[in-house]
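hi support,

uploading two proteins for the ticket. first:
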Amino acid sequence: MFSFPAGARIWVAAGVSDLRRGFTGLSAVAQTVLEQAPFGGHVFVFRGWRGDLIKLLWWNGDGLCLFAKRLERGRFIWPQAASGTVSLTWAQLSMLFEGIDWRRPARTWKPDMAV
């Protein structure tokens, strides 16, 4: 099991990325397109053409880590922008990673009044 550091930010590359790229190619995208330091400890999220595969790139201090997830059914909910970056919270990343619509999560219960 791994955990990301509390101060790390999550950057989503809007649009689609060529996920045939590995460590070097995706870190170059993080540096040139997203204009963020790939070795700064932040998490970078990239989506493939079909929308059922994402890759996360993260520098843990010793080296780059590359995580991939493919959904068996459905697609990952992605920002509507065609280019640029979007910053997510850890809760939004968790929902995105599970294939849940992180943009408008629906609460199952809300209190009516305080006692």
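and the second one:
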Amino acid sequence: MIILGIDPGSVRIGYGVIKKNHGKLTHLKSGLLKLPQTDHANRLVAIEKDLNNLLQKFQPDRVGLEKLFFVKNQKTALGVSEARGVILNTLAKKSLPFFEITPSEVKLAVTGDGRASKKSVAKMVNYFLGLELGNVVIDDITDALAIAIAVSGRNIEVK
């Protein structure tokens, strides 16, 4: 089973693709969808295009998407919400099963503590996937991989 985890943002979007085979998790690819420095509408178009490319390349069986749970900056929240809307629309067009998952649910699934630090999440992502990411870790990427790991263990009903 191939799982794509997505950590949405308004400037960049983290993604992580893993494979689950007989309970073993393997890292396939991860990175950032860097959105162009143009107007907001063109950023949304770029999200759909880049996500479609990822979906075509890896053909995931399911997708995990972080829910927008708590917002410090309303302006940022609006941009992230619009990016999430484009992502959800793209997934729906492909009829892909997906989970929306809160940051605390991801932390709980990966570390056993729903209030774990970003550093603890990154450490457990490295452990589960056998990665050696070192000290230079981009939160958006480790969060996306953590989302994929969290979603890999969930049961899903396809309607």
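thanks. also noticed: The mean pLDDT is 89.
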